[in-house]
Design goal:
It is built from three helices and seven strands, in the order αβββββββαα. With about 170 residues, the chain is α+β, with helices and mostly antiparallel strands.
């Protein structure tokens, strides 16, 4: 496993549509391992192959909805497609390819994806809350889109702080 360089907004690779994965081999396994390690090192909740310069339909997402005391799990999605979406959530969204930038983005609150695992086996998985947001965000990357296309403006540090403070005040 190795840490990979995360491309930054403005790199033309991030605006290209990715090709499907057809070879489920050691090269793909290494890519998925590297994506997971790079995401964790960067303290992200998702990372797509084009963000590290690989134009293939592969992403990793951190499943944060785990029982208390259990570790978060890395979900690997190869050739993912969103097959169901419901509900709504609106909150600040950022990206490892746009460090320090956040904007309010509306996403579904519940998403079901169909994808292949590292060995080519198809499966379906449902994500809720932050996981659903990450599924949408990362699959957008596979089609050459970034969250900045979905928000009205990039939030200032003060706006971001105010948002999180208001969320804390709303909790009992």
């Amino acid at each position: 496993m190795a840490l990979r360089n995360i491309l930054k907004e403005g790199d033309e690779t991030l605006s290209k549509k990715c090709r499907p994965v057809t070879n489920f081999d050691k090269r793909l396994h290494d890519l998925l391992d590297d994506l997971g390690e790079t995401m964790m090192d960067a303290e992200g909740v998702g990372l797509a192959a084009p963000q590290v310069g690989v134009l293939r339909r592969a992403v990793v997402v951190l499943e944060t909805n785990v029982p208390e005391g259990e570790p978060e799990q890395i979900i690997e999605l190869v050739n993912p497609e969103i097959i169901e979406a419901s509900g709504e959530q609106v909150s600040p969204e950022g990206c490892l390819s746009a460090p320090g930038r956040f904007g309010m983005v509306k996403r579904p609150d519940r998403v079901k994806v169909r994808a292949q695992d590292r060995d080519g086996n198809w499966f379906e998985l449902e994500g809720v809350g932050l996981t659903a947001r990450a599924f949408c965000h990362e699959t957008d990357h596979l089609d050459g889109h970034m969250f900045t296309e979905l928000c009205d403006h990039i939030m200032s540090d003060e706006e971001l702080q105010d948002y999180y403070q208001s969320q804390q005040q709303d909790k009992p």
